[in-house]
TrEMBL record:
UniProt source species: Kwoniella bestiolae CBS 10118
GO CC term, one of those recorded: actin cortical patch
Family matches, as PANTHER family: GLIA MATURATION FACTOR, GLIAL FACTOR NATURATION FACTOR
GO molecular function: actin binding; Arp2/3 complex binding
Domain ADF-H: 39-174
Gene3D superfamilies: Severin
Similarity comment: family membership: Belongs to the actin-binding proteins ADF family. GMF subfamily.
Pfam family of the protein (one): Cofilin_ADF
One of the GO BP terms on file: negative regulation of Arp2/3 complex-mediated actin nucleation
Tree of life domain: Eukaryota
CDD domains: ADF_GMF-beta_like (cd11283)
InterPro entries referenced in this protein's UniProt entry, alphabetically: ADF-H, ADF-H/Gelsolin-like_dom_sf, GMF
Protein name: ADF-H domain-containing protein
Length: 176
């Protein structure tokens, strides 16, 4: 950690008009250092993290999803809904038309060589009709949610249920 030991003030023959109070600088640096890891706009509570972890590690042989919303009043995330044994199109119809969601999706993917896998995909459900304040919170928390959910691929859906179908998901998962 840096320390500052002197007070700098302009001298009579100095043309610069500045002053540095080292105690103020030290306070600002320590404040920044203490808060640099906690600058998240929206919190992800432990129960949501546990639900995401449980979802990730559950073995399933069908399409499933977990939807997470932002609770504006508390600036935290909450599990909104869980989907089991539903098609992607059915899940899309269940999602709200005017509120953003993060949707973690497990989907059966058939590879060209005949293999079958169940990769995870994060669907950034951000309908264009959603309130701007919610969209701003949602956009600012996307990378953080993606890190916590440990998902590499993100599918952006802005045009509602029409933009989320099996083909769009397969195309995203098969893309390099």
């Amino acid at each position: 950690m840096m320390t500052f030991t002197e007070r700098v003030s302009p001298s009579d023959d100095d043309n610069n008009n500045y002053s540095v109070d080292t105690s103020t600088l030290e306070s600002l640096i320590s404040l920044f250092s203490a808060n640099k890891m906690s600058t998240r706009t929206v919190d992800i509570p432990q129960d949501v993290i546990a639900a995401l972890k449980k979802f990730r590690f559950t073995n399933r042989k069908s399409t499933a999803a977990i939807s997470v919303k932002i609770v504006k009043a508390s600036l935290s995330m909450a599990v909104d809904e869980e989907f089991e044994d539903q098609s992607i199109e059915e899940i899309a119809e269940e999602l709200p038309e005017n509120h953003p969601r993060y949707v973690l999706l497990s989907h059966e993917l058939k590879h060209k060589d005949g293999r079958i896998s169940y990769p995870l995909l994060l669907i950034n459900w951000a309908p264009s009709g959603a309130p701007m304040e919610l969209m701003t919170l949602h956009a600012s928390s996307l990378n953080y949610f993606q890190q916590v959910a440990e998902v590499a691929k993100v599918l952006e859906v802005r045009d509602g249920a029409e933009g989320l179908d099996t083909k769009a998901v397969d195309d995203k998962l098969l893309a390099n």
